[in-house]
Design goal:
Largest sheet: 6 strands, antiparallel, barrel
Radius of gyration: 19 Å
Order of helices and strands: HEEEHEEHHE
Number of helices: 4
Strand content: 25-35%
Structural class: alpha+beta
Helix content: 25-40%
Number of strands: 6
Shape: globular
Amino acid sequence: MTSARRLAASCLALLLLISSATADPAADGWDPAAWANEDVIELRTQAPGKEPHWFKVWLVVIDGQLYVRLGTRAARRFEENETRPKVTVRIAEREFPAVVGTPAPEMAEKVDAAMAEKYWTDVFVRYFDHPLTLRLAPE
């Protein structure tokens, strides 16, 4: 192997090492399609001066994106979260420490319809106030 090829191979190896070291661990394993049949997702928030709080919500996957619909109390927890728009997520025995919750009001009707199709008890739940629809994706 020539010295130019060794140098090129070394540079490539270094670039691969650097890119893997700086890759976002939240994105590693993030697979909404694999979770389409999961019943709940857990979100962790922390209000200023309070302990971290985990809560469960229903989820749907639409066009490869994960969505949740938050009721009044959960929406308030998200709004008061010290790391907003980031939350910690648990799903399918995995934990993702830096997931961004992006308000998606344009998807509210589709999310409502998908929730009604997925969860039979939504026949009752849909009549409660759900002021916040979030798309969840790794940072």
